[in-house]
Amino acid sequence: MSKSINVSYEGKPCYQIVMEQDFHNLLNELEKAGYHASQKACIVTDSNVAKLHLKELEENLKLFFDKVISFEFPAGEEYKNLDTVQKLYEFLITNHFERQDLLVAFGGGVVGDLTGFSGATYLRGIDFIQIPTTLLSQVDSSIGGKTGVDFSQYKNMVGAFYQPKLVYMNLSLLNTLPKNQYISGMGEVLKHGLIKSKDYFTWMQRNYEAIMSLEPMTVEEMVYQSCLIKRDVVERDPKEKGERALLNFGHTIGHAVEKLADFSRFHGQCVGIGMAASCFISHKSGHITKEEYEGILDTFRHFGLPTKAEGLKAEEILAVSKSDKKMAAGKIKFILLSSIGNAYINPDLSDEEICSGIQSIL
After folding, report:
1. Count of CB atoms within 10 A of residue 126's CB?
2. What's the pTM?
């Protein structure tokens, strides 16, 4: 049971996404990517992943690299900031890391984003690979080269496009993922179906029990299909000048909910709430039927995703949405559905139309 996907960047082969059920093939993939024993490797991880899996990864990498060190920071979105980046810089400098050495992002989206940004900026660029440990990072944030950190609670406001040299997924690690984090990842998975493939969305509805029980073959197929969708989009639009914006379906309002809730909800949960609002606007715009809209919400709830943002105010959500980095010429680039499996960018929604979607989730 293994799968791989080749990813190109600006028309040239760039890296592989490798899906396995353990770490048995990692060293072979490192060799194929051009690495050798004399290089140093620094694993960057958070306190949650470190407790569960760091020792196993260290033992595997020490079979390949002569020197392996680990940098651990506290788990949580609040630590995805420039202060943590500065501490990582100091750690790398102290350990004499040079441009030919390697960073290993071992964790979820926070770890991957922070490690990638540090890799892009340390010594003007040092290689990094992704070993994503959450469903959300496996299907979304580890692919495409978007890196960044939060600034003054503005999510991912400072960042760079910087491609990994390898994405290696040990899918068995999902078995130790807390259920609410697995459900959070389903927010991004369901998004892929809604914006690009009705057949995939329907497949997930049919395979609910196997997905939620983490049946290995079903999960592998789900991750594979999501990665294919993400790969195809980022290859066509690597720096988000057009189609890649479709991947932000649910994110404008979702990011606002995430910030106003002081990051107490997981990212994918907030994306689910944002998608619920966007689906309401899509329905009111005449693109999806009432039955389709209600069916989407039922699917979200079936997978455990929230569809309401209780306790927040519509005007606050709208105001924070307008501070989102996805604004263009003072307007929100809003992603809506023209049908299930087809999304489009609408830069001309009025505040009233956006507020109608916000009201639907309150």
Report:
1. 20
2. 0.94
Burial 238-260 (b: 16+ CB within 10 A, else e): bebeeebbbbbbbbbbbbbbbbb
Tell me the pLDDT tens digit for each residue of 290-322: 999 999 999 999 999 999 998 999 999 999 998
- The Cα 92–Cα 62 span in angstroms is 18
What lies within 8 Å, CB to CB, of 320 at 6+ separation is 255, 256, 259, 260
> What is the distance between the alpha carbons of residues 156 and 114, in angstroms, rounded to a whole number?
10
Gap between the Cα atoms of 168 and 3, Å rounded: 11
Question: Which of 354, 346, 268 lies closest to 307, judged by CA?
Answer: 268
Q: Do 22 and 56 form a contact (C-beta atoms < 8 A)?
A: no
Closest to 232 (Cα-Cα) out of 221, 213, 216, 246: 246
Q: Exposure of 59 by Cβ count < 10 A (0-12 exposed, 13-18 middle, 19+ buried)?
A: exposed
Locate all alpha helices (DSSP H) within 33-81, ordered by sequence.
Answer: 47-49, 55-61
Between β-strands 67-73 and 40-46, what pairing exists: parallel, antiparallel or unpaired?
parallel
